[in-house]
Amino acid sequence: MTKPKILIVEDEQVVAADIQDCLERLGYAVVGTAASGIAAIRKAVEAQPDLVLMDIRLKGAMDGIETARELHAHLDIPVVFLSAYADAEILERAKGVCPAGYVLKPFDERSVRSAIELALHNHPRTRRIAGDARRLELALNVVEDGLIVTGPDGCVAAMNHAAEVLTGWRREEAQGKKIAQLLPLVKPQGGLAGNLFAVAAYEREPQVLSEGLELVTRQGWHRRVQGTVTPLIDEEQRLIGLAVKFRALPSQATREAAAPEPVLLASQRLPGRLVEALALELVGRVEKALKRLTDADTPGGPEWQEIRNRLAVAGELARRLAVYGQLGEPAMRPLELNSWLAEVGPLATLVAGNPTRLSLRCENSSLHVCADPMRLECAILGAIAEMCSQPDGSVELTTGRTRLLEAFARAFTRLEPGEYASLQLVGPGLPQPVWASLEHDLRSLVWPMSGDVHLEKTAQGTCVEVYLPLAAGEEKR
Questions:
Q1: Fewest C-beta in 10 Å: which of 1, 293, 441, 463?
Q2: Beta partners for 54?
């Protein structure tokens, strides 16, 4: 029988050696040791262990919990934590990454063997369940109607992409919220409709969302909908949740017709912070221009020239806001990144809010890519706005060439190994919800340009890297 392969992640060399001796006595094959999170991920990619035995407290930017999260997300390798710490805060964080086991130091061979054997036994079943859930998610996304499934308490457990688009809620944000909050229904003539979700749960009978009802989206738009609310009853006749299926009716006859169609593309979500920053700058410039206009004595003097300059910048900001709100399919064209950054630099400084909060550095050689300039601008400026909005937030933006090794490309991106043009933003640490939202939105903007995005925690805070394919022939320079 093949020995199970185990990777040890422990930053104390003597302790790592003791663990290795213990595992080998128990009959396991130790495929390597790593002293940091980054080293652990690299070795896991290379060695493909069956299990990782991970110390929680690691030196460097990533602790054991963050490393386990990356291993679970990208390599699907079970992790057993090995730690001397068992306080409530650490246990709560550890639970968030779904470890396969937890062993307290000092440990004995029996407890280590038990944890490893249970983890190896349960992982195929866990993987199968996750695979079934993923297939279900993909199947739900094929359906054109909006689908939302709740638990017995009426809180959202799952929803498909169509439901995201129709309601204006992202599934990550909707998770755990009451169904009535996601689907507030009103009568066209005004007033709330009855709570059909509560009725369906109480009477155990399907309820119809009639054509006369309007859904108020998260953005405040009204759209006519129709659908059904079906109670989910198990074999023991217990209510285990609700299934809500709904679709939008033609919008000409609704109040939505007078408003722009709300789209849940990240190209419109990410600019939220960016639009806010530019709008404030726009208002400020117009107000200052009007004040100058009031104070100016003679037309044509220096004050009038300053007014024209301010209004010209205000007009450009207004044009940018309009473009950001209408991003669609990528309009790809040849682009030299350093020249592009020089053009975007003044606008990036405005978005940062203060010239001292942003520094730009360019690669010495040219970087030719094929990209959508406005989509790329929206992604980079949106990231700058988000990072600079954090307390004491400042950003260093650098262009360069990056060679993605096979192990890194396979673990962290959907790109092939090779050389890419890169834009790197180093800034403050981000709260987890902001981190997840920024990563999702940047990828939604960059993926259509055949690029990718990688976010990583560093000693300084957060590093965001945007990779774009180099133009033909450029990679050989």
A1: 1
A2: 9, 81
